[in-house]
Amino acid sequence: MGIYGALSSAVTGLRAQSHALENISGNIANSQTTGYKRMETSFMDLIPDAPLKSQVPGAVLAQSRATNNIQGDIQTSSNETYIALNANGFFVVEPKVGQSDGNSVFAGSNYFTRRGDFEIDKDGLLVNGAGYYLKGLPIDPATGNISGSVPEVIELSNAFLPANQTTTINYQSNLPQLPKTANYKSTVYNSELLGSENFAAGSTTAATNGTVNLGAGAGANLATTVFADGDTMTMTVNGVAVDFKFYDSGSSPVPTGGVAIDLVAPRTVQNVLDDMQSELRDFGGGAAASATVSLNGSNQFNVTLGTDYHSSFSISGVSAALETALGLTDPQTSSDPTLATVNTVSADDADDFVANSISGGAITVYASNGAPVNVQLRWAKVDSAASGGTDRWNLFYLSDSAAVGGSPAWTNIGQDYEFGSNGSLSTSVPQATIDDLRVNGVLIGDVVLAHDTNGVSQFADVNGTVTVSTLNQNGYGAGEFLSVAITDSGRVVATYSNGERIEMAQVVTAQFNGINSLKRLDGGVYEATSESGEPIFDLSGSGIIGGALEASNTDISDEFTKLIITQQAYSAGTRIVSTADEMLQEALNMIR
């Protein structure tokens, strides 16, 4: 090859360094371009075929090498629609090819970019600074799940968000084992309970009755018209016996042993009944703490245990004369109590109900037309294991705050919550349904009260109040479109004036096996090639960062260093050309 070969190699070197200079200049020019990937220059030597002893270095070929796999710095931004990728991959975009009847027209092809400076245009589309439109998959607003599998241009709507009727209330809470209601007194037996007999007809407690009608106004009669000196009676409550001994202090001494009841004139029948009631409460044990001894509506002798619903009770040891006077049988055992369910509480009884229950929280729900309704909840303990029953609760809601008289004000949801000694529900209640929920005349419809598996418990609480851990619902009123943002999971979320944030689309990203073999196009986008392979779409939103942009991966100082090296290499190449020229001149001068 000789001098001409050296000259040719020098020219390829100059051409290669020129190519390197072109890449360097492009990198420096795009050092501030969002998502730009710098181009490196690779040099490849071209060796001519020659015997082993005659081989020469040969020429050089410059090739561009992409750096798509090298990430630029992530910079935060106040724009909520800007996004960056903190992973290998690309956003899927598409250019607009025209307009038809006022609508944007797209070709349906996929391009790929790391440029994430997307903003909403006049048509509600997300377009970046290079004019490419972001693609993703729509989200079903009813289920929140992605629908479809083929990426499409994300289109946002600024229309009003229609109201969504409440169908589910998520409610989890802990009920105190001992509710400290307004009427609770530690010294009063069962005062923590609702007292169903005060709110529902048919509720009765353990009772015994005489059969003799003592006549109207019998309570005002002298005591001796019913009771006689020397009469006896024993009342036994849960095994605790109270022996009553009646005497006339005007003619007889005070009897010993038991409880003495004086009949001396002018004491009345009512005085004697009051004394018996007081003494029974004092000496009959906790189960008799609210016992009553009185005349019933038929003017018959009557004994009940008040708010105790489970204790055994009997009367025995009745003297013959007293047994006849009252129409008692000896012995007489109380009938089994019946604790009725309180379905509704009237307005007349509302204050008493509130005083015998504890607040369970309040929540706003929505009717089908978006009308907001405030639902106030109250828990009432209706039975207790401490009194021989089971720890049972009912949940009520304020159905009519303007109710008067006998009209219902509070309504039972219709579900019993019974707890074991460990504080967990005896029978799991993962959910309860409030049928035809109506508050202050506004119909909501059937609403599921979702508790989850162990969402309602009864553990000891020193405050005696309900601790609500979860209280939310799935309804909302109509709302006006305010703004849109892209989250770190790649969800495009619209915000409305009613406070709702609705996920509208999922940003799709694409990865390539041959990431550096993509074809570069204008605007920082790439096109798949046979060397890059087909895109692998990712719907998880992995690596997406909202409110951020990826800067160019160009390093100015590094580019300037390469610029100096390239300049010196080019200068060295020109020296080869000059030297080869001088040698050719010498060869030509030999024939002169």
Briefly say what this structure is.
This protein is of the alpha+beta class.
- Provide the gyration radius in Å: 46 Å
* Portion in beta strands: 25-35%
Regions with little confidence, pLDDT below 50 for 5+ residues: none
First and last CA, distance: 24 Å
The chain-level mean pLDDT equals 91
* Largest sheet: number of strands, sense, barrel closure: 12 strands, antiparallel
Number of helices: 5
- Total count of strands: 38
Structural class: alpha+beta
Instruction: Indicate the overall shape.
Output: rod-shaped
Give the helix proportion (percent range). Answer: 10-25%
Organism: Devosia salina
InterPro entries: Flag_bb_rod_N, Flagellar_FlgE/F/G, Flg_bb/hook_C_dom, FlgE/F/G-like, LlgE_F_G-like_D1
Family: Belongs to the flagella basal body rod proteins family.
Domain Flagellar basal-body/hook protein C-terminal: 547-590
